[in-house]
Write a structure and sequence with these properties.
Layout lengths: L9 H9 L3 E7 L3 H9 L7 E5 L4 H8 L9 H18 L6 E9 L11 E7 L3 E8 L7 H19 L15 E9 L2 H8 L8 E3 L5 E3 L6 E4 L7 H14 L3 E6 L10 H9 L7 E4 L4 H7 L4 E5 H7 L9 H13 L3 E5 L1 E3 L2 E3 L14 E4 L10 H7 L7
Parallel strand pairs: 1-2, 1-3, 9-10, 9-12, 10-11, 12-13, 13-16
Antiparallel strand pairs: 3-4, 4-5, 5-6, 7-8, 7-11, 14-15
Helix pairs in contact: 2-5, 4-6, 9-11
Length: 392
Amino acid sequence: MANNSSAFPHVVIEELHKAPGRAVVAVSGAGSSSLAWLMEVPGASRTLLEGIIPYSQSSLVSFLGYEPDQYVSPQTSRDMARAAYARALELREGEESVVGLACTATIATDRPKRGDHRACVSLRDDAGTTTYELKLAKGSRDRKGEEELVSRLALKTLAEAWNIGTEIPLVLLPEEELLGKAWSADDAIDLLLSEGPRRPGLWVMAHRDSNVKVGSQAPAAVLAGSFNPFHQGHDGLAEAASNFLGAPVVLEMSVTNVDKPPLDESAVRERVGQLHGSWDLALTCATTFREKSVLFPGCTFVVGWDTAVRLVDVAYYAGSERVMYEALGKIREVGCSFLVAGRVEDGSYRTLSDVAVPEQLADLFRELPESAFRLDISSTELRAQGKGRGGA
């Protein structure tokens, strides 16, 4: 059984330590030797900001912020690299160049594995993401040999990103395959997912013509939601509100959530994709209407009856009436207001008149007339139909 293990050339590590950049490295399943090699040569602090080993499934889920469909896949490694890059941005000193390097792998262990032995390595920097996928010859190397090969690939990826002149060879067996390097350019969605939590004013506009860019001009009207999926209720309400207000309505979706994990990149892109050709979608990290109002001053928030009920329920403000008045008062200060659409609840059609709005806050709310929009089916029923746009 092949091993081919050897100490990693110190000269290469020394070159990495001289490179003008630092990294957060995250490895899961294999690749930890890359960290050991970096640290055993003097000068590691010039290269390594932090080493992270989210080894168990629960640890990786915590690191990513969501549970991936596959723990070893190019997408999971890209998401790990994005999380590592975001951490690097937090830890960097001044405006120094930083990267996030990530590896997720499944290799030989003390029990048989049904699937292939493979590894996915990604590196995220300020330009985009580079990804390698390595297929190992199952049963041809011991664990130490597979670990070394995966770790070499990780450092090879880092060396290429920093233009290190010394080549890092990968001695592959005939049955092994290093799939072509894939590179994806940074775009506005990547930027939001990486830096949005640390840049409160950052938001992204995904236009209906597929053009996606960092947002600048606040929309006149906003319909917020998760749009999972976008259905006929959203479509009808947005159109009715636009006609009533005499202004275009923009949908808004937060990629973070108060009580749920943040959305992963594939979910965000899927929800953006379902709206191509229909509605513009603003992507934010704003989890509350107070935060949304800071991004979109002067806008009208289009909401359903149930959302209006929550907006004036002190239970949603940690039981504090003072906090509720402060939050809604801030929304008023930036010129925002709410347009409330009725909806069916427990067999009855409920409207703004059924919401216990305090007199001091009455000017924040107005009603979208029943004659302008009424849909006698709940969001749950619409989603259950599973028909996307025009259905649930």
